[in-house]
Design brief:
Layout (H helix, E strand, L loop, with lengths): L8 H24 L23 E3 L2 E11 L11 H10 L4 E7 L9 E4 L2 E11 L2 E5 L12 H11 L3 E3 L18 E6 H4 L11 H10 L1 H5 L7 H11 L5 E5 L8 H6 L2 E6 L7 H11 L4 E3 L4 E11 L2 E11 L3 E7 L2 E8 L5 E6 L3 E11 L6 E12 L6
Parallel strand pairs: 2-3, 3-5, 7-8, 8-9
Antiparallel strand pairs: 1-2, 2-10, 4-5, 5-6, 6-7, 10-11, 11-18, 12-13, 13-16, 14-15, 14-17, 17-18
Length: 392
């Protein structure tokens, strides 16, 4: 007796061919968008520069520096990138400084700071406590490790700080310790933005990994320049105690280095250039970091973003060097949008509103080309807490 063919084979082959065709079309589209999500170095020349720094003039100050805070090398047990590779990637991305925060290792450079291949390297430390991780930027940190966050914060404050909570909203390394004594928290972190996509049931992992493989810029751009949950947390705790907002790539070497750095930049503005002495420059930099601005430069380069309370007004000023699409400067108070204005490359923009108490936020949002529709995300974020006690 001859078995009859069921006809299942042909539909299955057709379905597989359709899936393959879609896969190839989508891959080609992502590859064609590489130019739009290509991080670049600042194109303007420095007005005055040290032998290693690359400052530029922007809304944050006449000497604005771009760099990365919270970077790991193979000195940390969970990282796998040599320091020389980090420095090379930083130079390629146009960065002036990198702050190394190895896990529970004090002064991996042998000193607090040094210059290597034109990049200022500053040593801090990340204490890996059982109830969260703390960044210690003290000039001479004490020797850890520490069992709890309370112990880490106490040691950091005794050494001078600042003491900053690392990736507080990350499901894998959430901050569960007390906030008492903390000077700041990360609102933009590679651990929370990219690492949390590994969270079960892993629905985003395949799509993100595929995009990052084909086009790292497009894969990391959706993280914007801050995570909304971290911004809400910052607003809540900043009402209780003064707390600055920080940003970091939390680089470990598991993502393309240049895009990892460019997607989680920190811009600091100074009234004068960083000193030619690395140790003096390190202190200048650490003093300025609490006023830094978080930047995702994968769909454009931001010259700076300044947010300040001036008399009876709150003002935000921003400037773009270039962007992959239309951009807006947006002013928000307690996460509610107050005003906005379009912003063009090389043309400073400003928005303002009557001053009232609360947490103010300025954002530069860029609408970059996407797979089908444009993808708008923040390219820069600055946060300011305004209280009546500050005086007007």
């Amino acid at each position: 007796m001859v078995a009859r063919r069921t006809g299942v084979g042909k539909p299955l082959r057709v379905a597989l061919l359709v899936i393959l065709a879609v896969f190839l079309v989508v891959s080609l589209r992502i590859l064609l968008l590489r130019a739009d999500y290509a991080p670049g170095a600042p194109t303007h020349s420095a007005s005055v520069a040290t032998s290693w720094g690359r400052p530029f003039s922007g809304p944050q100050g006449p000497f604005t520096y771009a760099g990365a805070v919270h970077v790991h090398t193979e000195v940390s047990a969970d990282a796998r990138v040599p320091l020389s590779d980090v420095v090379a990637a930083a130079r390629e991305a146009g960065l002036s400084f990198v702050v190394l925060t190895e896990h529970d290792v004090v002064h991996p450079l042998g000193a607090r700071a040094r210059v290597q291949d034109g990049v200022l390297l500053v040593a801090a430390v990340e204490w890996s406590a059982s109830d969260g991780h703390l960044l210690d930027f003290s000039p001479t940190p004490s020797r850890g490790p520490y069992r709890t966050g309370v112990e880490a914060v106490a040691a950091c404050r005794a050494s001078g700080g600042p003491c900053v909570v690392a990736h507080p909203t990350s499901w894998r390394r959430q901050w569960l310790s007390t906030w008492q004594g903390v000077d700041g928290m990360e609102i933009h972190s590679g651990m929370a933005a990219v690492g949390d996509q590994l969270k079960p049931p892993f629905l985003q992992l395949g799509w993100t990994a595929w995009q990052t493989l084909l086009n790292p810029g497009m894969g990391l751009w959706p993280s914007g320049a801050a995570q909304e949950r971290a911004l809400w947390m910052h607003e809540a705790y900043a009402q209780v105690q003064p707390m600055s907002a920080w940003c970091s790539p939390d680089l470990h070497g598991h993502l393309p280095l240049r895009e990892n750095l460019a997607g989680f930049l920190t811009l600091v503005g100074l009234p004068q250039p960083l000193d030619g002495d690395a140790l003096v420059a390190a202190q200048q930099l650490v003093d300025a970091l609490p006023r830094g601005v978080c930047v995702n430069a994968l769909a454009g380069w931001v010259d700076g973003l300044r947010l300040e309370a001036d008399g009876s007004r709150v003002r935000a000023r921003g400037q773009l060097a270039h962007a992959a699409g239309p951009a807006r400067l947006v002013l928000l108070k307690d996460s509610v949008q107050i005003s906005e204005v379009s912003i063009s490359a090389r043309v400073p923009a400003e928005v303002e509103a009557p001053r009232t108490d609360g947490t103010w936020r300025a954002e530069i949002r860029v609408s970059a080309p996407g797979f089908i529709f444009p993808r708008e995300h923040s390219a820069a974020v600055s946060v300011l807490r305004v209280d009546a006690s500050e005086g007007r």
